[in-house]
Design a protein that fits this description.
heterodimer, A: alpha+beta, Alpha-Beta Plaits, four-stranded antiparallel sheet, about 25% helix, about 30% strand, B: mainly alpha, Multidrug-efflux Transporter Regulator, Chain: A, Domain 2, 2 domains, elongated
Chain lengths: ~100, ~240
């Protein structure tokens, strides 16, 4: 299933607002077949939130934002890169 | 006339909450022994809400629907009962079925949340933070419903006159380890402890000098350790002089 990156404008949101939004987001994910909310990153300085979903389509991610009453600027399909694939012989603790 | 009958015969009747149907009582036995134990409740609850929204063809998941599904999940024989809170869930069901906004046709995707879920979700997460527990549980939801002061929960808890603090105290008492609970004495044991005749203990109970409680639904009396201590008065120096 493809991955999607959702960018949200959360200017002025407090930590409590984000928690509440997270509750709604998690609750509404359960209403979409195959959808998984993988992770989110909150850029507080810029007032933006980036959320990564596994979903059937970008439309599902857009619809999910409406259902959960979340802001949404754009949705893009993205590729997932797993750092573990590069672990191999490389010392991942190295500073170099 | 019974409120449920009124609703069924005349359609939406929202102003007929009465103390007959939502009765606060400190005496009822709890049915939700896991409330507040952090056992994780959110996922299954939300799945229930979504299923109910589909069943009722709701155009939105409202605070009232959340409230009804919450009560129904935790009800026994049609009643939600937790300490001072007792609610006739069938009455709530009737009201939600009569007032829930319906979709003109089945929704193609998930049912969206209504705007009144936003302040509720803020309250809920504030409760989670305040409690210090790591996962959302039933007690977080119950207290958030009690604090939200809007929609059906606002009206129900407004009528009940029960505070969230009372409910939290009840939950705290339930989860208290046995070692923290007070020892209980029968009148005979109390008499032995105080080294008086059992009839003296019973006379003190009748006169109000010694506080006692009944086991729920039975005649048997029990006296707490602290109540027993309350009849022991320390002597002051004047008493000692008089005694000498």
């Amino acid at each position: 299933m493809p991955y999607y990156l959702a960018r949200r404008n959360v200017q002025g949101a407090t930590a409590e607002d984000m928690q509440a939004a997270g509750f709604r987001a998690y609750s509404c994910v359960l209403g979409y077949r195959g959808m998984r909310w993988l992770t989110s990153i909150w850029d507080q300085a810029k007032g933006e939130m980036y959320c990564v979903y596994e979903a059937r389509s970008a439309e599902d991610v857009k619809d999910h934002a409406k259902a959960a009453l979340l802001p949404l600027e754009e949705v893009r399909e993205v590729e997932h890169v797993d750092p573990r694939e590069y672990a191999g012989p490389v010392n991942t603790n190295s500073a170099l | 006339m019974h409120v449920n009958t009124l609703i069924r015969e005349n359609g939406v009747v929202l102003h007929n909450f009465t103390q007959r149907h939502i009765i606060p009582s400190m005496e009822d036995q709890p049915t939700l022994t896991t409330l507040g134990d952090g056992s994780g409740f959110h996922g299954e609850f939300i799945e229930d809400v979504i299923a109910e929204a589909h069943r009722l063809n709701a155009s939105a998941i409202t605070l009232d629907l959340f409230f009804y599904v919450f009560l129904r999940r935790l009800s026994r024989f049609g009643f939600f009962s937790f300490g001072p809170v007792n609610i006739d869930v069938r009455l709530i069901e009737d009201i939600v079925e009569a007032t829930l906004p319906r979709a003109q046709q089945p929704l193609p995707n998930a049912t969206p949340m209504a705007a009144d879920i936003v302040p509720f979700s803020n309250l809920l997460m504030a409760e989670l933070k305040r409690s210090g527990r790591s996962r959302l549980d039933e007690l977080h939801f119950l207290v958030a419903f009690m604090r939200c002061n809007q929609g059906l929960p606002g009206r129900v808890f407004g009528e009940l006159g029960v505070s969230p603090e009372q409910v939290e105290q009840f939950a705290k008492n339930l989860s208290a380890p046995a070692s923290q609970l007070e020892d209980l004495y029968t009148p005979e044991e109390a008499a032995a402890y105080l080294n008086v005749h059992v009839q003296t203990v019973r006379a003190w109970i009748r006169s109000g000098r010694l506080r006692a409680r009944r086991l729920a639904g039975q005649r048997a009396l029990r006296i707490t350790a602290s109540d027993l201590q309350s009849v022991l008065e320390p002597l002051d120096s004047a008493d000692l002089d008089a005694g000498n």
